[in-house]
Each structure stands twice: as C-alpha cells, then as structure tokens.
Amino acid sequence: MPRLLFVLNEAYFFLSHRLPVAERARAEGWEVHVAAPPDHVWAPPGFSVADLEAQGFIFHPIPLSRRGTNLFGEARTFLALWRLFVRLRPNLVHLVTIKPNLYGGLAARLARVPSVVFAVTGLGQVFVARGARAAMLRAVVRGLLRIALGHPNRRVIFQNHDDFRTWVDAGIVPPDAAMVVRGSGVDLAAYRAGPPPPGAPLVVLASRLIWEKGVQAFADAARLLRSEGVEARFALVGDTQPSNPRAVPAAILDAWQRDGVVEWWGYRGDMAAVLAESSIVCLPSTYGEGIPKILLEAAAAGRPIVTNDIAGCREAVEDGITGWLVPPGDGAALAARLRDLIENPGRAADFGAAGRDLAEREFSDDAIAAATVEVYRMLASRYNQRRSRPGQ
Question: 3-185+364-388: which CATH number, 3.40.50.2000, 3.40.50.1970, 2.40.440.10, 3.30.70.890?
Fold first, then answer.
C-alpha cells in the first residue's frame, strides 16, 4: 500500500480542509499519514489528534512554530521532517502552507521522497507584510523556495490564479510544474440554499478573528449603517487567540457587543446552521488568501457575498452576479454595498441563487478531491516510468 503523508501547520485543518482529498486517496489504496504540530492553536474546543486517528489516519507530531523566525527552532523543524521522511519512507508527501512547503520541500529532496505536492493556500503574512524587515524576509524565503520547490517530480497547486502568476513571475516555480485547483472545496449536500429567515437581515463575518480578516472594517461599516438607520444585525463568528499578536483582543470584541455595534457569537462548528440564519456574508479581508472557505460555503448556501477585491476573494465571487467586490480599505464602498443588499432583498436573492450555481459548477469538494488525487496518480506514474528506464 503506497504511503501518502500530509504535512500541515495545524492538525485540525486536515479535517476541515483536506479530509475529502484524504478519503478519496484512501479509497484508491493509499495509506494516509498526517504530520502537524501537537498544540492545535486554531482548533475548536475539545479537538485532539484522536479525532484523526479515530478515522483511520496516522498522526505524527512535529515541532513547528507558525510565526517563529528563531533559527534554532526553524532548523529543528527541518530536521524533524527529514527524520520523519527517512523513517516513514512515504511515496508522496503533500505539503500545505509556506513553512511545510519550505522545510518539507528541502527535506523531501534530501530524503529522496519519490513525489511531492506543494499546496499554496494563499501568500500569507510573509508575502503581504510591509516594512524593510518583511521585505528582507521575503527575499530570503523566495530564494529558499526556489530550491525547496525544485524536486524533480513535483506539482505546485495554487488556489487562485493571482498567486500562480505571482510565483511564476518571481521565478519561484516554472509554469509547467504549477497548476490551479480553486480552493479546498465545499460539501454541497451539507449547505442547502434557501431563503433567509424573516426579520432584520443578518450580516455575518465568519473567520479566524485576526485584524487582517477585516474585522475592524466590518465593525466600522456596521456602526456607520446603524447610525444611518439601516435595519440589520451584524455578527462576528469566530474565536480569538490571545497567543497570536494579530488576533483581535476579546476585550475589544466584548466592547463592540456591549455598545450594540456587532454581535460576537464566538466559535461555531455548525457553519451550515449559521449561514441558514444569515442573509449576507461579508469578508473585507486584506490577508494573503488562497480562497477563503467561508466564501465557498456562503455560495453553496445561496448567500450573497460582499468581500474585498483581492487575490483569493475575487476568485470566489463573480462581481455583480454572486456578490460585490469592493476596493480594500474603502470603508464607504463596503458600507454602500452592504446597504445595497440589505435594502434590496430581491437582488440579494438573485446573487445567492447565482452563487449556488457557481458552487455547483466550480467548488464541490468531490471535484476538488478528484483533481488533487489525479495529481497523485500522475506523479506516481511518472516516478514509476522513470524507475523503469534503463540506467535510472
């Protein structure tokens, strides 16, 4: 049985974003392993690796700091991955996010792993941060990525075309080694399109509550629209993480709630139910997104979207058809587009219906899983062909 090893920076994201791919691969005969840090920073309460193991996946803890730049710690991550690859002998490793791509790619070359898939799920903080230090770090990371992604039997999978062009134009990866698979997919059966409930429209921002997700812009738009007499509710759905310096402090969220600006619902594991209660989904993100999963879920649930016109977000929305794209940092435009959908329920319903059609055409988790496992098959076949040639 060939071995497939996923390497991620958060074990929970395997279940939330990679499970359909893993299940399809297992159905085709792969033994599936997962390597991730054991601390589960963004997992919901009560999550443990036992949840993975109960579903038949084999977990390997690795030391990995998501935001750290300490050279000793980074070297420790690289060595841990190299040792794991040497010991486990995977036939293919699927590396997800920047640090696993970087250290896992280097380790895979040294350990002679037969095949590697690199998943670029957005450019992340390294590529969007500003300042001289950030620019220097980007230059170093680009150089290392060119080496890490140089495995002779690899595919680099981007979630959106903007990131594809950015990395190809920067010379990080050649175009013939890269492809776009749009997002991590959505379970169309779990999200049912239907009319919003009666009463004041509910506008939802559901995400990790970090500043880059547009939490301040959402609160400012809610405050402005309320001051103008617009009848609507605004809810933040997500948890905050005190250990993350970019997380919105709970004290601020509590203050907004006390002042009646927004409702703060905290973490919710039943996103289909949340969207069924909502009328509009808003994500004014400035983060280096791949394709935000909440936008795919909103489309599948038949909810109109208002989001920033940035890489990743624009990939999930057809402007003026399934939602509105607004310029990043333009609070007036954000509020105006929200007001348009709040006060025009017919247009909101049309956008939602078109969004469901888009999700069915482009974003089903079955289609995403099939496209990804086809990459596995292609790489495995190419490796076997090379081995069968004389002198290889």
Answer: 3.40.50.2000
- Token readout for 99 is 């640090």
CB contact at 8 A, 22 and 57: yes
- The 8-class DSSP code of residue 307 comes to E
Average pLDDT over residues 229-238: 97
Q: E strand or H helix at 76, and its extent?
A: helix 71-88
* pLDDT over 70 (residue 131): yes
The answer to whether 264 and 225 have CB atoms below 8 angstroms apart is no
Contacts of 143-149 with CB under 8 Å at 24 or more apart are 144/102, 144/106, 145/101, 145/102, 145/105, 145/172, 145/173, 146/171, 146/172, 146/173, 147/105, 147/106, 148/101, 148/102, 148/103, 148/104, 148/105, 148/106, 148/109, 149/101, 149/105, 149/118, 149/173, 149/177
| pLDDT over 80 at 242, yes or no | no
- Give the integer Cα–Cα distance in Å for 34 and 36: 7
Q: Specify the domain boundaries for CATH 3.40.50.2000 within the chain.
A: 3-185+364-388, 202-362
Q: How far apart are CA 36 and CA 14, in angstroms?
A: 9
Where is average pLDDT lowest: 56-70, 99-113, 334-348?
56-70
The one-character DSSP state at 315 is G
Q: Residue 373: CB partners within 8 Å, gap ≥ 6?
A: 21, 24, 25, 28
Position 385 scores a pLDDT of 85
**What's the CATH superfamily of 202-362?**
Glycogen Phosphorylase B; (3.40.50.2000)
Q: What is the pLDDT of residues 314-373, one digit of tens each?
A: 999 999 999 999 999 999 999 999 999 999 999 999 999 999 999 999 999 999 999 999
The per-type count for the chain, helices as H runs and strands as E runs, is 15, 13
Nearest Cα neighbor of 376 from 157, 176, 59, 161 is 157
- Structure-block tokens of residue 75: 């070297």
Could you tell me the pTM of the whole model?
A: 0.91
- Alpha-carbon distance of 269 to 48, in angstroms, equals 15
